[in-house]
Design brief:
The structure is a homodimer. Helices cover about 45% and strands about 5% of the residues of chain A. By secondary structure, chain A is mainly alpha-helical. In chain A, strands 1-2 form a two-stranded antiparallel ribbon. In chain A, strand 1 and strand 2 form a beta hairpin. In chain A, helix 1 packs across helix 3. The radius of gyration of chain A is 18 Å and the shape is elongated. Chains A and B meet through helix 1, helix 5 and helix 6 of A and helix 1, helix 5 and helix 6 of B. The structure holds a DNA duplex.
Chain lengths: ~140, ~140
DNA sequence: CGAATAAATCATATCATCATGATGTTATCC
DNA sequence: GGATAACATCATGATGATATGATTTATTCG
C-alpha cells in the first residue's frame, strides 16, 4: 500500500507532533521511540525536510519541528514526499493511460475503491490522529463520556 | 497496491479466460498479447499453476487453462498467489499486531478503507471482468437472475 | 577558542523484485 | 523413434528499496 519508508515517515511525524510542544525532537529521541537505526531515520527525516514538512535546528537542543500545524498536514502529503510515484495506486493492470475514457477491464469497479483511498489520505491529517481514535461501533467498547 | 508481477498475473488470467474456449492458450500467444518476454511470463504462469489457478498441457496444441470457471476465480486469490504477504495492506504504520483490540492511531479510520479494498478483491471475479463494464448502455447489464 | 551536540552527507552493504537467456523435460504428431 | 511444440527450470544480471556505519558541517555552551 505504502512503502515501509513511508510508514516510518508517518510514525516519525506523529511522534514529532506529539512531542514538539516541549521543543525540537531530536533524531536520537525518535530513533529510541520508533526503535529504528538513527542514521536510517535521519535520512528519511531529511527527505521530509526537503519536502517542506519539517524544519530543523542543529546544535544543542536542536531537532525537528513541524513546519505547519498538525491539523493542516494531510497523510497524503507525507506519503507523496516519500513515495512520489503515487500512481502506484492507479491502474491495477498497470496501464499508464487508464482513465474513464480509456478504461481497463477493472476501471469502473476499482475507481470507487481507489477514490475511497485517495479521500482517506487527502482528508486525514496528523492532527486527527493525535486525539484518541474516534470511538466507533467496532470493538464494543462500553466507555461512556 | 499490488506488485507488477501480480498485475501481469491478472492480465494473463484475463487473457486466458477470454480465449480458452478455443483450447489451451500458449505462453507464446500470451507473451505476444501482453507484450512481455516469454520466459518471464512463463515463470509467473507457473506460479499460478502451483497456486492451483491454472492447469497446463504440454506438447503440440498445449498451453494454459483455468482450473475453475472464471466466475469462481476472485481477483484476491490471484493476487494472494503472487503477493503472498497480503498483510502489506494491513496496518499503515507497519504494526504486525494492529487490531481492533490493539489499534494504532489510524486503525479506526483506515479499517473502513481497507475493508472496501478487501471486499473489492474478494468479490470481483475474473468472470465479472470478461463482460464489458456496461457503460451508458441499457439492457446488457441487467442480468440479475 | 574548543568541546559537545545534532543534523547532513557519503560510502557501502544487503535484499527482494524484476528481467533475460539458455537449457531441460514432457507430450504430440508423423 | 525422431522432429517439433510447449511448459519447466536454472543461472545470471539489473535495479531499486532498505539498511548500516563513518564522516562532515553547523550550532550552542562554557
Amino acid at each position: 500500500m505504502i512503502s515501509r519508508t513511508a510508514s516510518i515517515a508517518l510514525r516519525a511525524l506523529l511522534c514529532i507532533a506529539e512531542r514538539q510542544e516541549l521543543g525540537p525532537v531530536s533524531a536520537k529521541v525518535l530513533a529510541r521511540n520508533l526503535e529504528l537505526p538513527r542514521n536510517y531515520l535521519s535520512k528519511t527525516l531529511y527527505r521530509l525536510v526537503q519536502g517542506g514538512l519539517l524544519q530543523t535546528t542543529r546544535g544543542r537542543g536542536g531537532g525537528y519541528l513541524l513546519t505547519a500545524p498538525a491539523a493542516e498536514v494531510s497523510l497524503g502529503r507525507i506519503v507523496d514526499v516519500i513515495d512520489p510515484d503515487g500512481s502506484q495506486r492507479r491502474c491495477l493492470l498497470g496501464r499508464p493511460e487508464c482513465s474513464d475514457s480509456s478504461p481497463c477491464a477493472m476501471h469502473g469497479r476499482w475507481c470507487e475503491v481507489r477514490e475511497a483511498i485517495d479521500r482517506f489520505f487527502a482528508e486525514t491529517t496528523v492532527g486527527d490522529l493525535l486525539r484518541p481514535p474516534a470511538p466507533d461501533h467496532r470493538g464494543r467498547s462500553s466507555i461512556h463520556t
